[in-house]
Amino acid sequence: MPQETILVVEDEAQIRKFLRISLEAHRYSVHEARLGDEGLALCVARSPDLVILDLGLPDMDGQEFIARLREWSGVPIIVLSVRADETQKVAALDAGANDYVTKPFGISELMARIRVVLRDARQPRATQRLFESQGLRVDLSLRDVSVDGHPVHLTKKEYELLHLLIASPGQVLTHQQILRAIWGPAQQEETHYLRVLMGQLRSKLGDDPAHPRFIITVQGVGYRLALPIALDDNNQDSESN
């Protein structure tokens, strides 16, 4: 299998060097850019499999980079930034980023996020039929859900919420993204609807939000599935990390 290529768009040389060494140690091919315009040009020239993006670039804000890239490319983006403000995270994810990691970061967690985002990007959507993760099993053809072999009966909206998270494994979905998908644009600010629905879903899955097994709360931003994640397209050979 050819090496997957990651483009690092980061103005700090030390962080670029650290990421290059870490990524190459995990057998990724790495390209680097210090400026946003340089990074966009490399996206055209090199067609990377993933972009790791700092928001504080010298020539443009990372939000602008995401918006410009999303005009023509669906390449996965992981934001790596010192900006911990919730509004910044929400804006980046709503603009089209797939995940958001705050500096300082643990390299093991970053590598896990990278694996999940890349694995999700490789999955042919039409063929995904079975999802399995840490005892949670969802047959997407039959809409059957079980935990540790025990059937779980979900309402239509509870299943829609779970399916949304499954469709974007490892990706943070903002409150507004979920609300638009389940209730429509007119309800995208009604976060209490989502809190109630998430509470019902977690209760049925036996998922304690204080010690989550399946669903992680990104405080003030949204939700994502817990790692590790395994997807089985052929209903038999599961992949796991």
Please describe the topology of this protein.
Layout: E1 5-9, H1 13-25, E2 29-33, H2 36-46, E3 50-53, H3 62-70, E4 77-81, H4 86-95, E5 99-102, H5 107-122, E6 130-133, E7 136-139, E8 144-147, E9 150-152, H6 156-167, E10 173-174, H7 175-183, H8 191-205, E11 215-218, E12 222-225, E13 230-232
Parallel strand pairs: 1-2, 1-3, 3-4, 4-5
Antiparallel strand pairs: 6-7, 6-13, 7-8, 8-9, 10-12, 11-12
Helix pairs in contact: 2-3, 6-8
Structural class: alpha/beta
User: How far from one another are the termini?
Assistant: 18 Å
* Spatial order of strands in the largest sheet: 2-1-3-4-5
Radius of gyration: 18 Å
CATH topology group of the largest domain: Rossmann fold
Largest sheet composition: 5 strands, parallel
Q: Which ranges are low-confidence, i.e. pLDDT below 50, for 5 or more consecutive residues? A: 229-241
CATH-scheme architecture of the largest domain: 3-Layer(aba) Sandwich
- What's the tally of helices? 8
CATH-level-4 superfamily name of the largest domain:
Response regulator
Silhouette? globular
How much is the average pLDDT? 84
Q: Name the CATH class of the largest domain.
A: Alpha Beta
Helical coverage, percent range: 25-40%
* Count of the separate structural domains: 2
Q: What's the β-strand tally?
A: 13
